[in-house]
Every structure is written in C-alpha cells, then in structure tokens.
Amino acid sequence: MSKPKRAEAFEKKELLRYWKEFTEDRRKEGKQQQFLILSQDPVMVDELTIQIKVNSSVQIDTVDQLKSDLLPFLRDKLQNDGLKLAAELEMDESKPLYILLQRNSSIWRKNILRLRYYKRNWDSIQTFSGYQSNIQQLILKISKDCIK
C-alpha cells in the first residue's frame, strides 16, 4: 500500500527556517562545500520548485548529491511531497568575455562546460548583458573549432 501524498501549503519563511536548519547541520558535520552552496537563500520558482544559483558544474554535482538528503528533510518538515530542487548555472559577469574564451588558459578549461550549457539552453536565454549576439557567434565558433 502506498503512502498518501502530502501537499500542505507553506510560506517562504517556513522554508527558510528549515533551509537554515539543514545548512547549519551541514556546517556542524564539516561539509564545507555543501554549507557554502546552501548558505545562500533559495528562490521559489513556483509553489513547488526551489532553485539554487551555482557558479560551476562542480557545484551542480554537489547539489545533485544534496538532493537525496535535503529534499526528504524539507518534504518532511513542510509536509509537502511535491517539492523539487533545481540548480541554475550562473555566469560570472564581472569577468570579461574574452577571458572565458582563451583556449590555453585554465579559465577556458573551467568554463567549457558552462559554454556548452549556454549552447544547449540558448532558447531560454533572453539576454546576456547586451552581448547575446556576440556570445552566439563565439559559441558557434567554439562548436566548430573545439567540439568536433
């Protein structure tokens, strides 16, 4: 017999209280990487989807690992089995774009996955600080030169 689905409504302040409780537990356990990611406040995309902004593919992997502990914790505390967790890769706009595209630099190697992400999700990107057409041209060039 399956367990009935819980779908209690909750407020953002309740979510934040339990989020901070879970974050503090991670700090006490010495899981610094997870603590750093969780230390930012989550964003509610809709009534069931929680979103965290991350800066690298490594942090996306960490969020994926966290899901197995964090979601059951939040679902239990908030009495809502429909909660979902998503990670959004955020580009650091403070760095000049040409630095990201230098082939032989360590920055290039770190950001190739980020550029591939933008290429895959191009339709969902509305603007990128006014550089959308430049980025599109560079992604096409990268695709031809590097992703063969």
Please tell me about this protein's structure.
The chain folds into 2 domains: 12-89; 97-146, no CATH class. It has helices at residues 12-28, 32-38, 57-78, 97-100, 106-120, 132-146, and strands spanning 43-44, 49-54, 84-89. α3 (57-78) links the parallel β2 and β3. The chain is 54% helix and 9% strand. α1 packs antiparallel against α2 (32-38) and α1 crosses α3 (57-78). The N and C termini lie far apart (51 Å). The chain has 148 residues and is mostly helical. The protein has a 3-stranded mixed β-sheet with strand order 1-2-3, with helices on one face.
What layout of secondary structure does this protein have?
Blueprint: H1 12-28, H2 32-38, E1 43-44, E2 49-54, H3 57-78, E3 84-89, H4 97-100, H5 106-120, H6 132-146
Helix pairs in contact: 1-2, 1-3
Summed up, the helix count is 6
Number of domains: 2
Major sheet: order of its strands? 1-2-3
Q: Give the CA-based shape.
A: globular
Bin the strand percentage.
Answer: 5-15%
Number of strands: 3
Radius of gyration, in angstroms, nearest whole number: 19 Å
H/E order of the elements?
HHEEHEHHH
Helix fraction by DSSP (H/I, runs of at least 4)? 40-55%
The overall pLDDT, averaged over residues, is: 75
* Intertermini distance: 51 Å
Largest sheet: 3 strands, mixed
